[in-house]
């Protein structure tokens, strides 16, 4: 038994294999200073991480990045994860994927592939991705994934520049014979937070998109089409915060490319010293480290969270969002209407009504911009 039974098990392991990526999406959740981060873990070090997490109860692993396909040992990592008994997920842009690699991943035991798109329109997709060939490659690989016997799982990050074409996005997914489609409105962390003025939709845009999505759900059901549409809204238009990651250090464990362990993939920006798998085993990291215990439970909470009758439902909201918007991770998530800083969210909603930031004017996620940001 773990030394603190009230702490949940790290059931979901996110393996951020690399920050390298051929695309330049302006809403990437990677840290702004990713180009200044340390050396990537080796194959053997990832094997050790996976084995330790599995011993602690981890059941699913997501291979992510950056773009995980740039790792030449990806098939080896998948094979080892399968040998250990994980359900394996590959979260990819599809850039760098080939028929041969799909076949190799299937042989290694990969269970699930999710391919992301930037838009249903080739020009907008490629402009956001920073690649003239991205859209055609994604279409080809989405079809190839299906042809190799995988369910087609697509992810579209929606924002003010593509959400008004939600019907075209869904029609593309239907034409591709997709099985699952995640229509995920931008979550404002990392580069998305930096580019919020160019990304946050208006309330009217969101309401229209959700209405159209629901209409398509009804239509698909009536036609007997099994395609599932998942619509994810940004919490900027909510009055209560989300139960971020189902609680701090309670279910999700992220390992970054250099081995830093995080309770969520956005936590690296916090002024908290997080442990590294090069120096500590995962049992110590999960149960004993300061970083993973910093916001567990309720003792850390200030008012209004401390006396709130909803704190066991939302755990005070997102610590990263509280830090980004107020400068203090111990504050209430400003999304909450009870927060003294809720005005920040109200102002963001107002700014979205008049924002005119074009795609070309946003700060794109690339090594050059990251190095500039890292230098301050």
How would you describe this structure to a colleague?
It comes from Candidatus Pseudomonas phytovorans. InterPro entries: 4Fe4S-binding_SPASM_dom, Aldolase_TIM, Elp3/MiaA/NifB-like_rSAM, MoaA_NifB_PqqE_Fe-S-bd_CS, PQQ_synth_PqqE_bac, PqqE-like, Radical_SAM_PqqE_MftC-like, rSAM. This is PqqA peptide cyclase. By secondary structure, the protein is an alpha/beta fold. The chain has a domain at 12-237: Aldolase class I (TIM Barrel, Alpha-Beta Barrel), CATH 3.20.20. 37% of the residues lie in helices and 12% in strands. It has a nine-stranded mixed beta sheet with strand order 7-6-5-4-3-2-1-8-9, covered by helices on one side. The longest helix is centred in the middle third of the chain and has 21 residues, at 203-223. It is globular. The model is unreliable at 1-5 (pLDDT under 50).
């Amino acid at each position: 038994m773990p030394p603190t039974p009230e702490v949940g098990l790290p059931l979901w392991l996110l393996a951020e294999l690399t920050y390298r990526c051929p695309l330049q999406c302006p809403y990437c959740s990677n840290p702004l200073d990713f180009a200044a981060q340390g050396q990537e873990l080796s194959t053997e070090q990832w094997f050790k991480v996976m084995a330790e997490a599995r011993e602690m109860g981890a059941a699913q692993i997501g291979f992510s990045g950056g773009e995980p396909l740039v790792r030449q040992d990806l098939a080896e990592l998948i094979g080892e994860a399968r040998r250990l008994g994980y359900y394996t997920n590959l979260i990819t842009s599809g850039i760098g994927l080939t028929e041969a690699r799909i076949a190799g991943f299937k042989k290694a035991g990969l269970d699930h592939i999710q391919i992301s798109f930037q838009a249903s329109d080739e020009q907008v997709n490629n402009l956001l991705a920073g690649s003239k060939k991205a859209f055609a490659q994604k279409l080809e690989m989405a079809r190839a994934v299906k042809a190799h016997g995988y369910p087609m799982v697509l992810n579209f990050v929606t924002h003010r520049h593509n959400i008004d074409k939600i019907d075209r996005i869904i029609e593309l997914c239907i034409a591709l014979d997709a099985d699952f489609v995640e229509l995920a409105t931008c979550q404002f962390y990392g580069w998305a937070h930096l580019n919020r003025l160019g990304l946050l939709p208006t309330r009217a845009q969101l309401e229209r998109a959700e209405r159209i999505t629901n209409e398509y759900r009804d239509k698909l059901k009536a036609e007997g089409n099994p395609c599932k549409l998942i619509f994810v809204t940004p919490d900027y238009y909510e009055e209560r915060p989300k139960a971020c990651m189902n609680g701090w250090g309670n279910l999700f464990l992220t390992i970054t490319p250099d081995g830093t362990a995080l309770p969520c993939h956005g936590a690296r920006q916090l002024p908290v010293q997080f442990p590294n798998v090069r120096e500590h085993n995962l049992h110590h990291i999960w149960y004993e480290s300061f970083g993973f215990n910093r916001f567990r439970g309720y003792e850390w909470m200030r008012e209004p969270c401390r006396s709130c009758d909803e704190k066991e439902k939302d755990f005070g909201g997102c610590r990263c969002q509280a830090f980004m918007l107020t400068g203090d991770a111990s504050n209430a998530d400003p999304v909450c209407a009870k927060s003294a800083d809720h005005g920040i969210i109200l102002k963001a909603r107002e700014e979205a009504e008049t924002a005119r930031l074009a795609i070309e004017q946003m700060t794109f996620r690339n090594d050059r911009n990251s190095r500039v940001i890292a230098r301050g």
